[in-house]
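User:
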Amino acid sequence: MNFKSNKGYTGADISIALIILLIFIPTIGAIIFNITLANNNTKRKVVAMNFATSILELAKETDYDKLKLEAPEEQGGFSYKINEKFGINDSQNGEFSLKDENNTSYKVKVTITKYIDTEEYTSNHSPTDEKKDLVKTIATEVEYPIGNETKKINVSTVIEKK
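Assistant: Predicted structure:
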């Protein structure tokens, strides 16, 4: 007599299937989570880089003598152009907040420094020398959140007086 039947699943078959599922489902979930996190990090880094690049392009378009951060209301000034480009009113001393299409907040800090220290230059040259303040360094620092961390991107350029 044959007691074995080929109808249905045995307890061993079900146990093996459950063990396989218990091993692979968390692994697949972790892979999906890591891919999503890397994707979000890349998207936010691209947006931060676009903000920094846009600000540096604005600096290149601005008249050299108006590359200052003190007066955002001055028409044609650098701070005014930043406010106008990004539709904000709150830039103070080169620090302001921008948001992307997902409403993620980015903190941006812009600094403008003379490439040559004018005091050091004038102490080594005659007062009638016209070669001071010919180059400025424009630096942008963009901070953005990823999970529980805050990441930063720093981009800078040098602009010469023409």
